[in-house]
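Before the break, one more example. Copy the sequence into your notebook; we will annotate it together after we see the structure.
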Amino acid sequence: MAGGVNVARVAHQGAPAGALLQSARAGPAFIDQPLYNLTRGYGSYVVVAVGVLIVQQVMLMAIASLVSSWLEARAGTLFGAQPVGLGALLGTTFGFALFVFLALLYFIGFGFWFQDYPRGGNFAGALAFAALTALTVASLGIALGAWFADRERAFQVLLATSVPFIFMCGIVFPREAMPAPINALAMLIPTTPGVFGFVKLNQMGAPWSEIRPEFLNMTVLLLLYAALAAWAVHRRREEVAE
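Here is what the structure looks like once it is written out:
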């Protein structure tokens, strides 16, 4: 009855009663508003994820080529005349990791702010995850450099892996649609946990507990690549000595 009184009142004021009834039946208007990619732009969707891949690939090529150069010249911290110890290997790893960490900070701290991409959801968590990622990438770079033992080969191999890595990480193609062997291989690439970890922390503001899978994956990769780096350096030093 109250609805009829309202319709009659609006109709008396000049508004069509039929339009009011149709609007009442339709319910409230639905407004589609994305939570994170507010502008629905390509950059906000892709750049925040690809930035992690850019840092990884550039730093892997730099670290691997430098370690390979040390091997060729029998110089540097790892391949000099002095016997290499755990302290030298850790110092070299942390030194390389510092550059990787600063490169990640450039993207999540300055680049996203300058380009006005979604950012700053959980910056403290992103900093801690960046430190873990930096150590992992540095360890992998040392292992690859000692394995290649040729600075040009590092560029040749790593340049060809950038596009497969971005597809395998699952940001542009769903991992659920990938074969199980590809998914298993993707778990060995730092960008796979890195992309989703940084997007959750920096863009979505997720707490640390919600990136537990990515944190565990990255931690396992750090231990694996640190062991591989130590083994590869030791093996190459023995070959050089011979």
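Confidence is low (pLDDT under 50) at residues 1-12. The radius of gyration is 26 Å. Try to locate both features in your own notes.
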